[in-house]
Amino acid sequence: MSIWSKLFTLGRAGAHDASAAVVDANALRILDQEIRDADKAQGKARDDLAGLVARRRILETEVDSFRAQVAKYETSARLAVDKGNMDLARQVAQRIADLEQDIALKAPQVDDMRQAEDQIHAAIAGTDRKIEQLRREVDVVKVNESVQKAQATVASSGAGSSIGSAAQSLARIRERQLIRGEKIRAAGELEDRRTGADLDEQLRLAGITPGHSSADDVLARLSAPKPTLQIEQRNDSKTSDG
Question: How far apart (Å, rounded) are the C-alpha atoms in residues 223 and 235?
Answer without folding.
Answer: 23
